[in-house]
Amino acid sequence: MIGRIRTYLIRYSRLQTGTVSYLTLVQEAELGLNLDISHEKSRLNEMLAEISATEHEAGRPPLSALVKVQGSKGQGDNFYKLCEKLGMGEWRSLKQDEDFLKNLIRDCREFWRDEANFQEFS
Fold first, then answer.
1. Beta strands of 15-71 (E only): which ranges?
2. Residue ranges with strand state E in 52-105
3. Which of 63, 66, 67 is nearest to 55 (CA)?
4. Cross-strand partners of 68
5. pTM of the full structure
6. pLDDT tens digits, the chain, 122 residues: what are they?
7. 21 secondary structure, DSSP code
8. Which of 15, 54, 79, 101 is surrounded by the most beta carbons within 10 Å?
């Protein structure tokens, strides 16, 4: 399932603009999760965190920057806490920095739209 999520988010960063909702991710990546069940939503959050940590450790931007909670303006606290854990700064400061998330999303798109990066790392 992690592979499907990662592949979907790479493709999304190459071909789409904006962010993708949890629901759209679950449906289009055919994950079969019910987001109304708390442990299934938690599992999705854990997989997104794992993907982003792996990407970050490899020197690539965190793909979960592209996924947002439907109806919200951006990311939830868990995303920023993950970024703090990855050494990007104190999570509250990151959340207050309007450019932080925009820059991560831009970095994802630039990285994955580069054909050499796509061929080597996708």
1. 20-21, 67-68
2. 67-68
3. 63
4. 21
5. 0.92
6. 999 999 999 999 999 988 999 999 999 999 999 999 999 999 999 999 999 999 999 999 999 999 987 666 678 888 999 999 999 999 999 999 989 999 999 999 999 999 999 999 99
7. E
8. 79
